[in-house]
């Protein structure tokens, strides 16, 4: 079993955005030593509780502070951007950090409608053109446009010795089909989806077309995890993350509350139901309990790798969660 990290760079109620980004850097450095396979940082825009709006900036810093772990974005929100610029940016990273760079490709806006309008024109039209945008990006990465193509005479410079590996991120059959069609590895965001992942993954594997980015279908599953020395403590810590999601649904956009702040918030009956729904999607427990739960998911979905999303109020408890998993599963 391989473990990786999805970092949303959450800002706790006692932090600044700078504090949160510093903790993201510390997490990447530590998990490089812990034996995690890859570290991806997410892209969000104008969300008060999340610090990272420009993953490529953070990845340049993180790449220089780590040695072995693969680095990438989860996800590059492609409808906002020209594929050429994305190819240039990640080719640059792959030149600096050879054979360590991933490009997670997504199509969500990553923020409010106002932020979307400020970032790009015609976002929805670009979403409808997602297949074409992916195709263009892959041609730039492979440097293989047909001779009669308008972009055949340009390269996404610098051209690295090892091409960054593109991944398709998604929560639906549509994203899985796009991944399979292009022969890309697929990251399924279980924590964001209510659909049957098994059917989607099976269809992806069945229709996968091999190419230079993948000779065989490859899937990772993104799951939210809170791990602590005891199951009771893990349950306590999880309150912050769950209540934070409820606050976001209220439109408050607050930063991650402390356990005490979270427990002081009164919930409606509907929100109590939502609390339980969110909790059921999480893996919460001591190291052995978490390992057992992941093993069950591994058997159910036939996946080799899990990307772990852990949000806590305390950076130390987040770090400890990842460390405990590394000790239990990766032999750190």
From TrEMBL:
InterPro entries: Bact_Lucif_Oxidored (IPR050766), CmoO-like (IPR019949), Luciferase-like_dom (IPR011251), Luciferase-like_sf (IPR036661). One of its GO terms (molecular function) is oxidoreductase activity, acting on paired donors, with incorporation or reduction of molecular oxygen. One of its GO terms (cellular component) is cytosol. Residues 1-298 form the Luciferase-like domain. Pfam families: Bac_luciferase. NCBIfam families: oxido_grp_1. To bacterial alkanal monooxygenase alpha and beta chains. This is Luciferase family oxidoreductase group 1. It comes from Ureibacillus chungkukjangi.
């Amino acid at each position: 079993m391989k473990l990786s990290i999805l970092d949303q760079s959450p800002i706790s109620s006692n932090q600044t955005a700078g504090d949160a980004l510093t903790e993201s850097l510390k997490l990447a450095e530590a998990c490089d030593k812990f034996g995690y396979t890859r570290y991806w940082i997410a892209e969000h825009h104008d969300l008060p509780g999340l610090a990272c709006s420009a993953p490529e900036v953070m990845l340049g810093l993180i790449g220089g502070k780590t040695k072995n772990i693969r680095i990438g974005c989860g996800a590059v929100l492609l409808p906002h951007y020209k594929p050429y610029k994305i190819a240039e940016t990640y080719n640059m990273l792959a030149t600096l950090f050879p054979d360590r760079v991933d490009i997670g490709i997504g199509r969500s806006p990553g923020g409010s409608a106002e932020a979307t309008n400020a970032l790009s024109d015609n976002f929805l039209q670009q979403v409808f053109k997602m297949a074409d945008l992916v195709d263009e990006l892959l041609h730039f990465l492979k440097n293989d446009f047909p001779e009669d193509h308008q972009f055949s005479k340009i390269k996404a410079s610098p051209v690295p010795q090892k091409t960054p590996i593109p991944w398709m991120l998604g929560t639906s059959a549509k994203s899985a089909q796009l991944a399979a069609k292009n022969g890309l590895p697929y990251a399924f965001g279980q924590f964001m989806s209510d659909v049957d992942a098994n059917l989607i993954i099976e269809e992806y594997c069945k229709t996968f077309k091999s190419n230079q980015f993948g000779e065989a279908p490859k899937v990772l599953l993104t799951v939210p995890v809170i791990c602590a020395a005891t199951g009771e403590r893990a349950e306590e810590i999880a309150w912050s993350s769950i209540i934070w999601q409820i606050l976001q649904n209220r439109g408050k956009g607050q930063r991650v509350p402390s356990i005490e702040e979270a427990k002081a918030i009164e919930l409606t009956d509907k929100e109590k139901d939502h609390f339980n729904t969110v909790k059921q999607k999480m893996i919460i427990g001591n190291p052995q309990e978490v390992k057992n739960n992941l093993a069950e998911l591994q058997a159910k979905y036939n996946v080799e790798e899990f990307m772990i999303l852990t949000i806590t109020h305390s950076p130390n408890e987040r770090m400890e969660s990842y460390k405990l998993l590394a000790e239990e599963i990766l032999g750190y």
